[in-house]
Write a structure and sequence with these properties.
- 47% of the residues lie in helices and 11% in strands.
- The protein has 24 helices and 18 strands.
- Strand 10 and strand 11 form a beta hairpin.
- The longest helix is centred in the C-terminal third of the chain and has 43 residues.
Length: 755
Amino acid sequence: MPTAQTAQTPSNALPAGTASHPSSVPPAADAAAASAYRWQFFRAGGVDQVIIRSGQDIAHLPELDQKLWVALACPTRGIEFDTRTLDLIDTDKDARIRPPELLAACAWACGVLADPDELARPGDAMQLTALATHTEEGAALHAQAVRILTLAGRPEADTLTLADVLERSAHLSAQRFNGDGVVSPDAAGDDALARQTLRWIMQTHGSVPAVDDEPDGVNRKLAEAFFADVARLRAWAQAAREATAGLPLGERTMAATQAVNKVRQKVEDFFARSRLAAYDMRAAAALNPTQQEYAALAAGHDLALTSEAIAALPIAPVSAVGLNGVLPLTRGVNPAWGAALATLRAQAVVPLLGEGFDSLTEAQWQQLKDAVAPCQERLAAKPATPLAPIEGEALFAQVLDGDAEQRVMALIDQDEAEQAHNDATLALEKLLRFKRDLLVLLNNFVSFSSFYQRRGAIFQAGTLYLDARSCELTVQVPDAAAHAKLAGLAKTYLAYCACTRQGPKKAVEKMTIVAAFTAGDVDFLFVGRNGVFYDRQGRDWDATITKVIENPTSIAQAFFSPYKKFLRVIEEQVAKRAAASDTLVQKSLGTKASSLANVPLTANAAAPAATPAPETGMRRTDVGTVAAIGVALGSISAVLVGVFAKFVDLGPWIPLALAGIVLAISGPSMLIAWLKLRQRSLGPILDASGWAINGRMRINTRLGGSLSQTAHVPPNARRLLDDPFAEPRRGWLVAGAVAVALGAAAFWAWRSIGF
């Protein structure tokens, strides 16, 4: 392939080997100043494309004007490339690779290697001496590589492979502390308090979602937020104890206040109802639930003491006589409030009024409220936290006053201690993947040398076998309808195929591809035609054409296209006329058969019917019809004689006339085909698949012939030409005789005028 050396302008003034965030790599500003680096280019697809084959080419890639790049973006899925490598390059995680991200990957790899040429020797193994130990990051990677080999039982080894790094990563993931900074409750082991505290953190403050097979867990941020709320509660509880120290119940005043507040609204409601009943005994019946309300409560569902319907009833029955105005605390109370009243009696009534109180008057209730009033302000100052659901748990007191925080944070510290090793292991994986894949990606992104040198581009999904040819330019597409809107601008004959195969566990796998037919005829390509597609892994798929975009494949195909269309129209018209005639005949026969079947029988039907006399001659033919046919044949023959006479008068110009007739018929389609073939491009096909093609990647006739190869018998094969099912050749003999006669007539006419 021809190459040319030329100096190009710098597009990104980044020194070789300098790591940079993708957003810090600016595009080319001006192409006026020449780069000091000497690039090499090759010409393919009508575009000058850079040759990238050495580490220095990769190191100086920021200096190459991005206007000379073939592609400016590509998707991370739907192409034949390692997705893990693409994800490591895709730093913004938008499922697309753009020049800043690719340049940052090249700069980082060159910065941690002693020699950038290591990237020009693709492979998943690397000598430890290839790392740049004179830099801080390179030295850290070297130390981690030695550690991985030592843990693998090969301390004397000097070569690290990608398999070694992946095995170590898998081992880290399975460890109790793997360096990701996330601790699950299981990591607490036998420490019940730490394990329960981690569960509470996940319950009240959320958790870090599981990755792969790892369980959900807690990181430092969640733990610090949880213990910050615990500290607020602890500070409030301490202040409350100090504020209630001089009260009659001392520290127990807070519990008594909470017990009073829990039933306060229902108790106030009871005494209000009791006052109304004392005012007018007729109100007692209306202040208690009616029989209909109880019936509605019990109808249609099972009762539960915790239901809101029962809790909404009065806390105790209201009576106009007897115990009117006295609230029972043990018996005869609403069962939904029984536990709360028992707590009120234990924590407030007994400590403040004495053991003998199983009921409360309104005055005694007011006495309880007055006793806990000084604590209400302190209770109102309690901070609102997500911890309310767990404050009543038995172990929560140990979280407030114990060392649960120290235990949990110690677990997180242990896990984070492995973070440095984890990061270094990930960096080694990235470096080994870049060493294996980066040069291949550059030759499918910055230039398309892999495609034009027929080494298999990453956008080529496989090979489609259909209609006695193979199509190598196949691209995976997510949506055929959306893809076709833009891909039609490629001026290429495209066939969209739905591919299916039986995958693991008999699950049906599906995929849609578009195949470019760039050579051969297209007479038998139509929707519904089946073929076989082989992907890049060698797996076979059933392929069915679902949509076609028609365009010429060659000038020769366009030459014969008008004649084929003309013959096709004639065949269609003849078929239509024949079908119409057949329908008419069938209808006529049906009518005659029906009339014969419905002939009435006479009384003497047994007698033999008279046999009609046979016709003595042929049916008469209308004289006018014969005359019309004669006139028509005479006119046609006169026209043909006149045309032939004029044609003979041309003399030596007869060949040119024949060529002119052929050119008039085939010329327009050949001209259109020539124009479209000049515009045939790879760009729109890839742009519709998510690429951003920067150059006009032409598919000329020679390249198209190699991308769609028709069937050929091997040159060393033995062919038996005796076909027992061959068609008779009499038609060819008649055609040959007519051609000879026409040639003789033309020669005679030419000789007769003196030439």
